[in-house]
Amino acid sequence: MNRISPAWFLFFFAPLTAEYVSGSSPYLNPFVLLANLLLYGPGALMIRELKVRWRKGWLAVFILAVAYVVAEEGLMLNTLFDPTRNTTGRLWGVNWVWTAGMVVVHSLVSIFAPILLAEATYHEKANEAWVKPRTLCILLAAFSANIFGLGRLFAPSHRPGVCYYLAEAAIIGGCLWLANRVPAREPATAEPKPYHSPRWLYVASLSGMLVTMIVGFAAPALPMPGAVKVVVMLAVYLGFLGFLHRSGAFNPSLDPLSKFAVACGVISFWVLASPLTALAKGNIGPVVFALLTAGLLRGAHERLKTGPASRKPLGS
């Protein structure tokens, strides 16, 4: 693992769970693979770099994740506005139930878990910038070219009017402004505060993810108004984040093994669900990528257990 830089690790890992373990992307299409790499990789890296450079905590990350959702699902893939798919709760040209679901999934699976996992794996560099300013500009250029280039090839029809693009730009700009204005993260303390063991955090994170995803999948099909579905989905999601916060998952003094446990809990839901996903998709792709992900996680866990971080007090 140490043979590759943390930036490259995050770049390649970011789309793995969200697109391939989940079965969302065709795993034998090289053009889709390129689009995913140029979408998730730069997206997660840029958000992580802004968090570090602005000296912010995880609240800023989740705010920036909303901007990411608007860029991917709105500007690029147009799923937020497409009148032919995922139209439950559609109002004013927006598929609100789908939008809520994308905020939940992408913020947890595409942004939070990969960043936390990378910072746990490369814990000695967790508070450092991983790319130079010039590289950050290159990432932004690649991300933008992907959204406005390949995105038009993947979703060329049913595009909304110009007012929607202006609204999306305003939301992205507002998220950047708000993330920059939230309070700075608390400094890590020399002596770790009392918190739960890594095993407890893993089970808690996996359980919370299970509940959040069950509600997210079930709510759109329930016989209730679209607005109620959105409220229920977001309430459970925010409840999960609040639970993680109270459990110490966002504590800046959290040791690497505990960070790793939280990230693995989120990712493990999709790994465990991969047989069902493979059955639904009619191919073994999700299981293959789930096994690959499980192997990567196991290897990283063994290195963390035997490395210097394992000798820090864990409060367990």
List keywords for this structure.
316 residues, 10 helices, mainly alpha, 2 strands, single chain
What does this structure look like?
The structure is a single chain. By secondary structure, this protein is mainly α. It has helices at residues 6-21, 30-53, 58-76, 96-121, 133-154, 162-181, 198-218, 226-246, 256-281, 285-306, and strands at 90-91, 94-95. The chain has one domain. Strands 1-2 form a two-stranded antiparallel sheet. Helix 1 (6-21) runs antiparallel to helix 4 (96-121) and helix 9 packs antiparallel against helix 10. The radius of gyration is 19 Å and the shape is globular.
Strand content: under 5%
Structural domains: how many: 1
**Share in helix:** 55-70%
Unreliable residue runs: 311-316
Element-by-element helix/strand order? HHHEEHHHHHHH
> What integer is the average pLDDT?
91
Number of helices: 10
Distance between the termini: 27 Å
Structural class: mainly alpha
Number of strands: 2
| Principal-axes shape call | globular
Largest sheet, strands/sense/barrel: 2 strands, antiparallel
The spatial strand order of the largest sheet comes to 1-2
How big is the Rg?
Answer: 19 Å
